[in-house]
């Protein structure tokens, strides 16, 4: 079952890691491995959401999502999108950006380093909004209860996450932006660039969120309409077929899933810039991760176990918050990519271990027949 579901992912992993070694040696191997782990971890909640919606679709639409959808996800967002970001920031054509990355690494690195303040500000704000919206939402399950309970209460204040993000942007523009790191070690004033790019990141986040909300509302409307039609048909003694029920509603599900997948992949792509500026390594690492997200989605649908490791979503979002801050700091200071990658891996690993401990505690309580469930917040 595992080999059948994850077979293609294992094959792509092997090919991707071999390609990384051939491209840049063992250092490249390490960067691709870290990117893969981060992409899988950051997109775990994506797989959970995908599985929850995908299980409602018939076999035809499931196959469409797992074929056409994976082309959009892997080749569109994980391969093309990083090139587009680099091209826009460095004021290059997409083909020229790819050509430079492959044939003139020194010149490419120089251009990307000079464009890094705008990339970091855009990405940092986008990721920061994802993190803030997560921690200010009141959730039944809390990982770091001592922190998440008071933040959830603060989250009742309207537009708080946007206000905090703008304050962080202003501070970043006037401190890091005023002494932005450039190629050759020089520092220049990029405060205006950082401010404009950060606002663009904030606007992008709000547009993506708005599109997701729009398709979610459409999906709910279609599901409600189809449910009413099914009940009416049953009362008339003419049950509707599963294929009819999968028509319009399934189409909106597909669109909704694609928008969601694009929004979820933003954090992985933008976060990758905190680890490396090399679009080849980025494409390899994110491509491997995206394959596992798809395989994990299929596995969750077939097994029906969506909530086994309940703190992973928390760990992934804390990693997103850490990457956001790292990106903003790298406007002025250089930070080693392995340190950046390990921060995310440690946070996600800690949340995974907390989930395992919680599951064991629940199993012991159930075995003891006490009927009392332990505190869902791990208090780590």
UniProtKB/TrEMBL annotation:
Q: Which Pfam families match?
A: DUF475 (PF04332)
Question: Which residue windows are coiled coil?
Answer: none
Q: Which UniProt keywords apply?
A: Membrane, Transmembrane, Transmembrane helix
Instruction: Tell me where on the tree of life, at the top rank, the source sits.
Output: Bacteria
Residue ranges crossing the lipid bilayer per the database entry? 6-35, 64-90, 115-136, 157-181, 193-215, 241-257, 269-293, 314-332, 338-356
Query: Which InterPro entries does this entry report, sorted A to Z?
Result: DUF475 (IPR007427)
Q: Which named protein is this?
A: Membrane protein
- Which source organism? Streptomyces leeuwenhoekii
């Amino acid at each position: 079952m595992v080999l059948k579901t994850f077979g293609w992912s294992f094959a792509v992993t092997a090919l991707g890691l071999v390609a990384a070694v051939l491209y840049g040696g063992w250092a490249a191997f390490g960067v691709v491995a870290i990117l893969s782990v981060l992409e899988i971890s950051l997109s775990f909640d994506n797989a959970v959401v995908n599985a929850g919606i995908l299980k409602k679709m018939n076999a035809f639409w499931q196959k469409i999502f797992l074929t056409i959808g994976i082309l959009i996800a892997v080749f569109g967002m994980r391969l093309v999108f990083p090139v587009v970001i680099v091209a826009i920031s460095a004021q290059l054509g997409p083909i020229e950006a790819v050509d430079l990355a492959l044939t003139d690494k020194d010149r490419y690195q120089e251009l990307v380093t000079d464009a890094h303040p705008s990339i970091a500000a855009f990405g940092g704000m986008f990721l920061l909004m994802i993190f803030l919206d997560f921690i200010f939402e009141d959730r039944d399950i809390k990982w770091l209860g001592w922190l998440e309970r008071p933040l959830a209460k603060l989250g009742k204040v309207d537009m708080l996450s946007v206000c905090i993000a703008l304050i962080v942007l202003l501070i970043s523009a006037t401190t890091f932006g005023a002494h932005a790191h450039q190629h050759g070690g020089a520092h220049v004033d990029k405060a205006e660039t950082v401010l404009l790019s950060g606002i663009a990141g904030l606007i992008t986040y709000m547009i993506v969120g708005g599109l997701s909300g729009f398709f979610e509302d459409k999906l709910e409307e279609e599901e409600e309409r189809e449910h009413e039609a099914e009940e009416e048909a049953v009362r008339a003694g003419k049950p509707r077929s599963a294929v009819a029920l999968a028509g319009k509603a399934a189409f909106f599900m597909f669109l909704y899933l694609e928008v969601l997948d694009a929004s979820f992949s933003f954090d992985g792509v933008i976060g990758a810039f905190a680890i490396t500026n090399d679009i080849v390594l980025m494409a390899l690492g994110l491509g491997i991760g995206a394959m596992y997200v798809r395989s994990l989605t299929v596995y969750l649908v077939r097994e029906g176990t969506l909530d086994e490791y309940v703190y992973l979503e928390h760990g992934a979002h804390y990693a997103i918050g850490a990457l956001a801050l790292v990106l903003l700091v790298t406007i002025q200071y250089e930070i080693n990519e392995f340190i950046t990658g390990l921060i995310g891996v440690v946070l996600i690993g800690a949340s995974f271990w907390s989930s395992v401990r919680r599951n064991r505690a629940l199993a012991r309580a159930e075995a003891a027949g006490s009927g009392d469930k332990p505190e869902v917040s791990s208090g780590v």
